[in-house]
## 1
Amino acid sequence: EAALALATFGTAATGATGALFDLLRRNDDHDAVLRHAAVLALAECAGRDALLERTGDAAIAVRRGALLALARRLDAEVARFLRDGDVTLRADAARAIYEGPIQPAMRELAKLCYDETADDAAIDWRAINACRLLGETEYGEALVQVAARKQHPAATRREALAVLAEWQAPHGQCRVTGNWRPCTHENAHVVAQCLTPVAVELLGDGDVAAATVRAIVQLELKTLAPNLQQLVGDGKAADDVRVAALDALATLQSELLQPTLAGIGADAPVPLRKRAVALLQHSAPEQAVPVLATLLANASLGEQQAAFEALGGLQHASATALLRTWLQRLERDDVPAALRLDLVLAAEKHAELAPLLAARSDAAAKLGAVQPYADCLEGGDSKAGRAVFFDHEATRCTRCHTLGGNGGNAGPVLDGIGKKLTRQQLLEALITPSLRIAEGFGTVTIELDDATAHTGVVTKDQDGSVTLVPVSGEPVTVPQSRIRSRTPNAASAMPPMGGPLSKTQIRDLLEFLGKQQKGD
């Protein structure tokens, strides 16, 4: 209030300015509210010369007050603080210039990109994006220098490369604030040419290699395709970088893509082999199959399952032959349980394998209703199974069952069910629920005096009425006086899940239920 009062009464008085700066000196940046009030007052009443005079004051709090007052006036002299000895003042100056914006000072901010010594990230990032806003060729070239300087933090160098990547077609959204702040870049091809020789070295720098690959793609630097090919084959490079380089060859439609894919062998990392398969599936399926074979031999479970899925989609003789080999292994019981369903589902997409599958299916059917689902016992996805349990509209297990305090009461509570029942017992409960009905959850058919009937689990039988829950999960209450007959049923209220759910969904649901270990 004192600061605002000084501003009100002292617009023309020299004493007001001095008093405000004395206030800032005593406050020493401790009270941000008081500092803000003083800055507002200085911006209103102080003469420009008086503010500039304080830019060399020994006290940081006084210099900050002058800086912020000048910033409120959008005065270009704020730029002199970009070289201040205090990093917080440099950051305040960079923020004021960039976000004001103080357009006459923007070039001074951009010139910080020529410094060989890194500054605070908040400063350097705004300097980089000031270059972006200015858009002139010289500032693009400055960003190339930033990207190449290893003494700068990796994040700063990656930001410079990200800005360079969109130099030909800059997005309208500000990369610092997120506000809409479109800009244009003339002679963008000159900046791209400037980056090209530097990018060769940057591809070998793990800190910025991936960002360099993205820039090469967006700037369409096709002459660097041989360097990308070399990076794909570099066993010392990170997996994600090698995959990015492979994708870049595909995006650039390089003639080197096919020979690069052909050179990815069984010793290549799994992510690279998986990406190679995805690219080969349509262009050269005969080359994709050997890569898939190596994934099946030594990859993780999820990757092996994905490999079988890819083989199912590859309508090529070599894919059929590989699946036939695996089906023969299945007959010898030489396929991990978690992969059996994936193998069968892939083979079902190849008509030539139908006789082998039919023979196996017929043999399983003779062993009972549950045996055709034996391949569902292992290999499921618990997260997908949770979605089946809670969200699948055709089944909606929570209509009748409670888990974790949520659900209905027409079926047993399933907390800890994975500890009470084996996977085989859970599968039997899903496929043939009537063979084993939990005590107290048998169904009853109630016939009323008007000949209508209701079938479900009785959940309440008192106070002159009976409440039962049918398969739909919606309770039905009828007066006892209207009941003509009550007949216990041998069948479970739960329908067999083999109809509404696919085998993959049953497998996922089994995995989810099997993990329910907590509870009574």
## 2
Amino acid sequence: LMAVIAVGDFDPNRIETLIRQHFSRLQRRPAPRPRTLTAVPDNSTPLVAIATDREASGSGVNVIFKLPPGETKTVGDYRRDLMEGLYLGMLNNRFSEMAQKPDAPFLGAGASKGDFYARSRDAFTLGAGVNDGGIERGLEALLVEARRVDQFGFLESELARQKQAVLRSYERSHAERDKTVSGAFVEEYIGNFLDGEAIPGIEYEYRLAQELIPSITLQEINGLASRWITDENRVIIAESPLKDGLKVPTEADLLAVFDRATKAPIVAYAEALSDDPLLERVPAAGRVVSERTIRAVNVTEWKLSNGARVLFKPTDYKADEVLMSAYSPGGTSLAPDADIMSASMASQVVNLSGLGKFNVVDLRKKLTGKAAGVTATISGTSEGLNGRASPKDLETLFQLIHLQFTAPRLDSAAFAAFRNQMLPNLANKGAVPEAVYSDTIQATLSQYHRRGRPMTTATFSEVDIAKSFAFYRDRFADAGDFTFLFVGNVTPATLKPLVERYIATLPTSGRKETWKDVAPGFPRGVIDKTVRKGTEAKASTLLVFSGSFVPTPASRFALRTLAELFQIKLTETLREQLGSTYSPSVGASSTRIPKAEYLVQVQYGSSPENVEKLTKAVLALIDTLKTKGPTAADVAKVREQLVRTRETEVKTNGYWSANIAGRDQAGEDLAGLLAPYDQMVRNLNPLLVRQAARKYFDMRNYARFILLPERLTP
């Protein structure tokens, strides 16, 4: 019943030898253990489970229809799977569209089909997260929409879009077939061994999808649900917070919903999607006015006629990927304290609203079959964009960039739907121990400043979407101080005309601005806080060390290596020696603006009675590291870890995009990402780590936060 799977960049003969060496000693049983297939019994009457919990953060409902198991052995089976995927995709699109409405019956909903707890069963599942008290309404909406599809079917336009989306997905996977990560192959082989799943490979599947998907008809799709939604083998699961004044439906209430759903009047789904292009008018091109190349990292810089900058790095790490980011100094630091909540939600308000003539639902439909997307971001000290695209959809990416600056939308109905999704979670935060704990940490580390308040129903109520939209418009009113970065499978010849047409023509007024330092940094001194919340006999501990920082590559490297080494020591001591926690973690970060500061966080879970013992163990490890330093063997482990991580990360677009942007904004030499970094790794030694420990584990400036239950269980 055992298999060994090995996938990676290795010598096959060597790996086979190692496998035989380590596994051949395992002997076959004289009487092999049978592989049993657990049966999930049928049920003629519905099975209903209703769960309540005082610490639950929200309400939800699932209705499950148990089905016979399916298998994919033949081309006919594969065609059936494609049909089912198209059906589920279209139904989920409808659920997503419904959730965008202010009076939506659920916060979010979805349909799925797959294994049901055992390999002997499949199941069709409809599920929704709902407002507290809205379980029955949400369940009815799920059933009514499934009945709408069963009665009227999908539209030809829906099927055409879904086919286009699925085929585009296959096309992208096929384009990346030579870049597939090892883990993806492992999962394929596991599925084959455990479930007998076919693994013909993406080349064959791509050809099959191209052949089969066009042949699937709307009539075939529309007949699927009638076979899945049955009177027998139903399971209904509802969950709700347990709190005063909140009515939780009974089993009879939930079963009555099915009767109402079958009798509810239903009209056919309709849609009207504009044929207008994304951009009403394609702008006349601007121009690149200067160019320079940073040869060490193969990055080119263009300065544009409107003052904007463009950096780009062509790569071949992925055939079908181009990453884009843009950044400009300012951010919410330029908003008055009184408007900070509106400013902090500004990018979210626009991202929820769509672009140009298209709301977010219609924009999603308009972009079907296009592998391109852009979202706006506004942080404390900057504003910008993040996006990605396939090389063949680059022009769509650039049009979306242009629209983010020139045609953002304010959709009050979309924000009302978002507000209705947020408020139930915010209202229940006070009952969730981890949320109360997290909010306490955030408020303490921000020194209770207005700008550092956690999101609550009270702070969320301060959001004025008109102010949010005005702040967004102001932040993106002048592209002249923006830098646009592109990393991926793109050439200068392809990129330049798009840059000149869509970025060099963005509005500019020549204003000069930067961020402001408007909030205090991390608190100084020693802080010890205990939060008592919840009833479960478990504890969480967080130690936070902070202080001023010199933001240089060498300092960041020292801070990183300290965290890597301390993670090793923490795991060895707390988990493997003491056996008192499962997954301790260490994280380190630093900021350059608005203040140059560092943060080292050590966190772990434990039983309440072990909190003090583990704190003493952690502080003892820190003291040893500061006084004696690490061993050469420990440093060698860190060096090897850094080298292995480096081998893979430098072959990803994400690494180059993040590090080019970070160094560019810091005014640091991009060439430092190569040989100088490798030299720091080679030079890593116990003394460097010991010095970092003395500097960054400052016992004069640290905080301890503990989460304990309100009362210990016997």
## 3
Amino acid sequence: MFSEKGLEQPRGFPEAVASRVALGIGLAGVLLRGVLLLLDVPPTNSDEATMGLAGAHIAAGTDLPIWFYGQAYMGPIEAYLAAPLFALFGSGTLLLRLPILFGYAAFPFLMYRLTLRLFTPGLAVVTVGLLALGSDRVIKNQMIAGGGYPEMLPAAAGLMLLALWLADGGHQPLRRAAGYATFGLVTSLALWVDWLVLPYLGVAGIVLLVGCHRELRGWAGAVLAAATVLGALPLIWYNLDAPAGLDSFSVHRALSAPGDAALGPQLKAGVLIGLPLATGLCAPGHCARPLWLWGPLYLALLTVAAVLAMTGWYRTRDGQRLRYLARLGLLAAAAGTLLAYLRGTGPTLDAYESVRYLHCLLVSTPAVLWPLWRVGRLRAFRLAAVAVVTAVAVLATGQLLAAVPGYREQADEHRDLVATLGRLGVTHVYSEYWTCNRIAFDTRERIVCAVLTPAMTPGLDRRPAFRDQVRASPTPAYAFPTGSPTDAAFAQRLAARAIPATVTETEGYRIYQPVNAVPLP
């Protein structure tokens, strides 16, 4: 039942043709994302603006942050990548995202080569086609420079491909040394950026160890270790004198603490909703109930694919054995990523936003789809199954495109807010979290902002200096999304204290300029 014989190179799709088709599809995926970025899609947020502020500070030489502002994890590599562009052209969201777009451009190419090495040309083309599409959730994960998610995909795919390339042997020593150095450097940089990629780094490391264990005992191991230490320097530097409880291991142990939600809600949010969302099948902010079936089907495909990989590994005794180990590794990484997600608080806390923690599942796409491609003797069934998955992904992409006018309207509302604050002469303002750092970044800190919660208490100010500056201002303004809980609470505070204020309405926001100071907790 599980024999793989005769199914590795199906007829009718030569590798040369597959390469040209995949290249065209991959370029179309890059073009789609480039056009969306020009249209203010996906919508930016304060987390991305915080990364932009870090990039601006790096470009100006005023700061070299080790972590994303306001926390002791998540290396801000996106800020470092954008800093040269900021130094040349000035800061802006589009420039912040440009390195991410180039990073995505490498992803379909790496996935094509990886799938071709492990499976078949036909499946490689299908994989690139699915990855070139983009639902709302997938595009947000891939294109928002909010901290680590976009870089994980090319890093995970590239490391697995590099491990297989090194295991092949027969390359020039200098090229092999460069390969080991790249493997070590990318691995440690990826761990600095975000530990969510750890399952994929782990299985790539196992493939490298199994395929190159003899060479790793000598010079190759030394090169790998040296490059790993070099890439880990930010981590090492920080942890040498990290405050108690804020060392990297303590922080990530706390972040990965198990949640206390019941199993049923966790499975519903994590499997039924999370898997179709993470793999690009859902509309913006909504996952239709029929699509929930993809969750159990995904688990079934993963299980069957694991049996196929283990059977192939057991029956093979030549150099092909490593291919089955790599297939099994991609499946194990997907399973580990899902289990870690289900173990935490994310699924029931916010199923639609926390699903970004499943972002790396896209790297396992060909391994999970292999059972569908495997039924070679039932060609009609295979084509129908792949066509259904592709059609749903195309529909989700179309639903994102339909949401573009709404996203552009949101961007226009924020630009109007910033312009109005400038016109009113505001330099210090209070707002809610998802607006605050956007104001500071978009105005290149000509206007600084401090966060207020609906309880009128200080919120999460990722730049405490901004909060201090706003507090010191005798006449700060207050800007909140119209009708939001924070807006309503502030209006009630003004009324209760009979403090007169000039109120300026913009599309989507309300700006208050009180005559007297407003007492805050």
